Hints:
The complex is a heterodimer. Chain A is built from 22 helices and seven strands. Chain A is mostly helical. Chain A has a four-stranded parallel sheet. In chain A, α21 links the parallel β6 and β7. By secondary structure, chain B is mainly alpha-helical. Chain B has a single domain (3-239), classed as Transmembrane di-heme cytochromes, Chain C (Fumarate Reductase Cytochrome B subunit, Up-down Bundle). Chain B has helices at residues 3-32, 48-61, 63-68, 70-90, 112-129, 131-136, 139-160, 166-177, 188-203, 211-214, 219-222, 235-239. In chain B, α4 (70-90) runs antiparallel to α5 and α7 (139-160) runs antiparallel to α9. The relative contact order of chain B is 0.18.
Amino acid sequence: MAEITKEELMTSAPKKKEPDKAPKLTGKIVKPKIVRGAAGHNKPYTAKPELMEKLGFPGQLVDNWQEAAIRKMGELLEKYKSLQVYMDICVRCGACTDKCQYFLSTKDPNNMPVGRAELFRKVYRRYFTREGKILGKIAGAVDFDLELLAEWYSYFHQCSQCRRCSVFCPYGIDTAEISMAAREIMDSIGLGEKYVVEVLGKVHDIGNNLGMNPKALENALEFVEEEIEEETGIPVKLPLDVEDAEVLLVTPSADFFASPHMESLVGYAKVFHQAGINWTFSTKASEAGNFGMFIGNYGQMKKVASRINDAIHELRPKRLVVGECGHAWRVAYQFWNTLIGPFDTLNPKYPRPQHIVEFTLDLINRGALVIDKSANDEFTVTFHDSCNVARATRMGDKPGGQFELPRELIKAVANNYVEMDAETIKAKTFCCGGGGGLLTDEIMEVRINGAMPRMQALHNVMETHGVNFMALICAICKAQFTAVFPKYGVPREVAGGIHQLVGRALVLGAKE
Amino acid sequence: MNGISLFYIAFAYVAVAIFIIGFLARVWKYAKTPSPLNITLTPGPTSTTGVVYRMVQEVGFFKSLFYSNRIIWLGGYIMHLGLALVLIKHFRFFFTPAPASLAWITTFEAYAGFIFLAPLLFLFALRLITDRTYYISLITDYGILALLMLIAATGILTKYYVRTDIIDVKAFVMGIVSFSPAAMPMDFIFILHFTLVMLLLIYFPFSKLMHAGGIFFSPTRNQADDPREVRHVTPWAVKG
Lengths: 512, 240
């Protein structure tokens, strides 16, 4: 990489190579020959000083950034076993090199999981290991200079922290952990990503990622109520801030606003209505997402999560259910108990927290809902396992429930179901390409590329089985696919939520 | 006893001490560094017994690597198998009489060195052939393979070609083990073999070879998938 200046590093406008063009859909995922630096021009906008400072980070790249970054790295190595162990034990066997969606599409070797991790390791070895201090470049130990920092900023924002590489690593090395640490270090020296920093600011100020104030939220819920009543003639309620309800539903704020997310919101509402369960949303907990995870900042993650705890104490619900969102379900399933638990006030008879898919499927299995599957007969459905749900969470009691339960639910509400290529689903699923804080338009090229393996697998089943609906359980997947589908020539409507299908098939008022 | 023997005996003690202390210090660091959150890779075992089973599959069979890349698995697995055979074979130098439970090793006696050396060559070639692994390989990655190949090759030579006197070697090694030094066999290939092994021991704790200890501390594989049932608590994470 050519010499660069601090100013160039901090400038917002990414250098564009060519207009965002999608790879050809052939149905095949081929292992490419590497092309060095092919994706090095990609970088998201850097965050504005005032927004950085609001989160407690320096406004811009500090003068002694190198020293500060190394100090921060040392601190993180003491705090995270994952980081310390994963720095040391990679043998560069190569097993992960062809597993990342961003590498498969961009061909850039720094997008191979080990290539990405080595950007971090070469600094680690230089400043924290005897091997690196004595052997230097021979052992792959390199000074942390501006050029390398620029590479960090570019390539650690071409990782969606989807953990696919970890599945294939003989030691389970998780690049997500390394990319989180890298972003934490960059934030700590004043080099933050605009998109994530802005979203976190909105959560703190207003309460959700989309920045919907309580009034807007109320209006959105009323709007959905009217829509449902218009369509079905039945007054289905979407309650807000109801005290002592049976269930508090925490869902990504995109569900209140975006398309096709709102269709799933309709689905949730119909399920609660028909099951006769007293439920509520909360203005305080109007966001299930937690972008604190994306930047590896424990304090931010805890602060965002604490809004859920506040809502539980204010509203005193008996159960906590989480809507369709991948990374949110990871934070909820794996981290909430640590961050804001124990959930002593919630009913221990139910999982704390419970996923909406677990919740709805349980009702269906107990015969609490009347379903007309034929309502979805126009669809041939396939299911995209969200990366975070697949590899960082569970549903139900058994390992792998996170794969089985969503499929059971889809098959319970739709007649036509087709599976995509086995190499691209369940634990081996590919990320949608927009996860991990990459869902921002200035890196559309990264997002289009990241979606490529999933698009190939989807293309296959569309061609061979006439699939016309890819069911999703993640707000980011929904936003990402509706944005990249047109680039690949696939209609937007092919992307939708599982509860969109549920909502269509659920027969309202039929139960006595 | 000559000067060379004295030098090598001292060298051996220093190398073994660096290896043991260095290895333990590293493992101690892994053990005491906190894991603030449950980050187990799912689907995963929900109990500690399940975690042990998962670990056995990984350490004993390189399960993930098997499903990831059969070619690398083949090279890596056979290499480690060969290494295990070679190590077991060497036990006889450390015990008098040699343990009867290891009598089976004589079946592999003739091939063990080759079972170790051949996959090392294979892995070395693999690094060069695939553009992706060529890109990520460090000089030290080749260096370690080369060092192990030299150790294997000199070991094979002492056995088949120059025929170092095994009784002398055993006396020398037993002398070191029992702290009553005996003279070193003055055989160039053996001395070279011995020197390389000592260098390997010294380098071990400072290198990627620590994967041998580190694999047990990988949080994505050594945690149970039970975060909803068990509150995962580490001091800094609960305060922070």
